[in-house]
Protein 1
Amino acid sequence: MKSTNKFSLAGIPLGIVGIILALVFPLASYACCVPGLIYSLGNKKKSRKRSVGGTVLNIVGLSLAAINSAIAVVIAVRDWQKGK
């Protein structure tokens, strides 16, 4: 039986959940993607394919969350200025 590294495997589901949450609730996405990215980057030597997959998923999740957060800030500032 092959030994698997659980931390490198954890980066993939955290990245998938992070992408889904990035579209709905970006703050929760940061909480999923940052640890997933750390797990994926920390275990590149043991399982390269899983590590690269987890890294890509988490970077995409963080990027979507950042874009969604920036859009929310722009909308909030614009609405706040209209109310003045």
Protein 2
Amino acid sequence: MPALFGTDGIRGSFGKYPITEQFFTQCAHLIEQFFKKILKKSVLKIAIGRDTRESGKVLQDALIHGFSDDTCVLDCGILPTPGVSVVVDHQKCDLGFAITASHNPYTDNGLKIFNSRGEKLSADLELQLEQFLASNPLTIQDMSEDRHVHDVTDFQAQARQIFIDRFDDIKFRFELPVVLDTANGATTYTSPDILQKYCKNLYIVSNHPDGRNINFNCGSEHIERLQTEVKNRHAHIGIAHDGDGDRLIMVDENARCLNGDQIIGIIANYLKQKHLLTNNIVVVTKQSNCGLDESLKKIGIHTVRTDVGDRNVYYNMVQCGSVLGGEESGHIILRKQAHTGDAISAAILVLKIISEAGSSLSKLANTIRLFPKKMVNLSVGTKIPIEEFTDLARLLQNFENSNYGYKRSLIRYSGTENKLRILVEADTITNADNLSNRIRDCLIKEFEKRKIFVK
């Protein structure tokens, strides 16, 4: 069996392995067996939610068909991924499943798995599960055709209410206009109800999901529509989610886009001022802009870097006792609110910060100076270990010792494609362009002298 789990669960094109009805049924049966053994339980309680993709209900039915007759299933219907996490914890479930492909187009789908605390599976446990699935092949013929899960509860209304009610203790009122883009996704049915409590003037766009328009020219991955709406409505803030509600990107009153790093910086500064930033530590990934580290260091906040993925961020937060972490992409974890990226929790906190400060999002963002960056991809025939590129090492050392404005670089292979990704940060965009081009040219020569395809 090929590797199933990527950075964030299982994902792929619907109708192609592993995102098929047959595989979801087989997978559910084996996952249930695995966790019964791990948890030493004969019956499991499971929560299942999905986003708005047209394939979601089909895959959910297939998943449920794979469980034992006595399994207790809470059908949470369409619910943001952080909502599934919250319901699992609140209802004392043994497992949770979010059927979603996050920010991907509607033609994709996937599966995210949560443990009994509403946390994504640790890397070690996920590896054990993958090995179990690989060593226990199961065909659909092995399963009785009349299998039926009798204890399926329609929990959609209750699940949404549990997710919404988390914010009842937060008190403030935001008087200025706000535009919300729900990406025609799962947050269409939760975020408007939550934000109406706090926003005097709330305008909602991309909130008519039809199964195929999730993330289509909208949401956190396509911010242009939100920027236009903020301008046209003279709004003070724009809030964008992705299809399953675990990413947040914001737009200020000038229609300027703020990424996850800037939002994390604003929140970190606020929490430190309120003496709520445990250990004065924020966890980010290798992709985060080094300007965030420098900005936070000036106010006494230490950043810890980890591999890409909000699961990695979360478990590093637990390890170092941090309450705040996230990614440039907009995954932001407020560990006292949720155990995974949670767009609406972060959005509410930013609104509260602005309201208390009597300031604007642009002014707060200006306190976090990010460096210009340039990203370049190279297609390669073979993935040669980067440490073998001695000319590259000398070039980077030269950058370090020069006054080219070089800040840092991150050179890594894609986990899913034969591509080498080059990220360079510098003091100006011109320097970032020049430095990234020099690294690219150096790498091309490294591959060519080994007679390996590169483009």
Protein 3
Amino acid sequence: MSIGMIGERELAPLRKINDIYEKVVIAGEYFNPVTQEGIKIILLTDFLLEENG
């Protein structure tokens, strides 16, 4: 799945939020984690398996 397939529908509302918090889109079928305009796009399994701390 590409950034284009994730779509403007998911990214547009996050772009409008002007704060200091990390913005993340969790995709079920996305192969290349990227950051686009400050929005992090990650794979669902990576999110669930991520160890914090």
